[in-house]
Amino acid sequence: MIVLGIETSCDETGLALYDTSPWEAGKPAAQGILGQALHSQIQMHQEFGGVVPELASRDHIRRIIPLLNQALKDSNCAAEAIDAIAYTEGPGLAGALLVGTAFANALGVALKRPLIGIHHLEGHLLSPLLSNTSKDEAPAFPFVALLVSGGHTQLMKVSGVGDYALLGETLDDAAGEAFDKTAKLLGLDYPGGAALSKLAVLGRAGRFDLPRPMLHSGDLDFSFAGLKTAVLTQVKKQMATAPTLDDAFRADLARSFVDAVVQVLVRKASQAIELHECRDLVLAGGVGANQQLRNALNLQAQQHSFRVHYPPLDLCTDNGVMIAFAGALRLLKEKHGGQVLNRPLSDGSFDVKPRWNLSATDSIEN
Ligand code: KG4
Ligand code: ZN
User: Fold this and answer.
1) Is the pLDDT score of 366 beyond 60?
2) How many domains does the chain contain in total?
3) DSSP annotation of 316
4) 256 and 167, same structural domain?
5) Are the C-beta atoms of 363 and 119 separated by less than 8 Å?
6) pTM above 0.90?
7) Ligand 1, CB cutoff 6 Å, lining residues
8) Confidence at 90, pLDDT banded by 50, 70, 90
9) Predicted confidence (pLDDT) at residue 363 exceeds the cutoff of 70
10) Closest-approaching ligand to the CA atom of 191
11) Quick one: pLDDT at residue 355?
12) Could you list the residue range(s) of the whole structural domain that residue 145 is in?
């Protein structure tokens, strides 16, 4: 079965084709990736310091057909080879989601193929299965997923495809949002997560005593707004004495910020593993590309005898492959008697879910 995946929830247009045969034959999931095409709008939004929803939708419209053609070419497939179409139905920007959803539905009607609406975070949290490892080395259900993206910071227990329980989440800013806001304060372009991480490598540890929000809260929730405020306080203090932020100050503050975020994320993820008696932790979402976080999780995993899994670096941020893969796993589940999430309404109408709770995914009515 070949599944087309379409991702347009925010500022990346991603299309990809995934073949379920290697996975069904017990081979590594990565072998099913036939090809993909991806366009990032980051540059377009940079001058506005954040994503402009209207511009995002228009750009998805402009790109989506050429990207489908490119993904088909990359996969060496004709459109008729597609057996099912998976698309991000939510959460995300309503206008952006509508572009991918409308396109998927039109294609489904034209090709007479079934449609599967995918939760964006489900794409992220299943993506670590796509690393090119044998099934023995791959994460096994139930596992704990630490989802850290620009919009979300959540710990989930994943007991199977479609079987997700929320263990804890941020009460205010997402980790990626905190990265981006701190990066902005230090004069880095949007989205500054990756650049801030690079800057932190040059910094000295421990110069700034930043808070570790909710480290000892006793639950698995997070909070990052206070940390961002603490960074702002340090920046204001420095600006009061000097007209610009010098390189050492910026790098040292970046280092203290990254160390604080990483410590909280690692501690809570490790607690979740212990509490829920899981053996595997998967890291997913854009902040999952962060090297300091990966290093710290590796160390923690070694010391506490659990395994940690990452998506391939290029699949950490938004892409069409993870949506095609999530759709493929949903279809396989249906084939084996499970229920597939969404079917198009019989009258041919469709909708999107800009706000959508993943742990309630299966109970949501269409
Ligand atoms: O998952 P994603 O691509 O989009 C959302 O669904 O939000 O995540 C984007 C977020 C941004 O906040 C970006 O700054 C952050 O991931 N990010 C990073 C790194 N690479 C991307 N944050 C820290 N370190 C990185 N290396
Ligand atoms: Zn994402």
Assistant:
1) no
2) 2
3) T
4) yes
5) no
6) yes
7) 10, 149-151, 176, 179-180, 191, 193-194, 197, 285-287, 289-290, 317-318
8) very high
9) no
10) 1
11) 94
12) 138-310
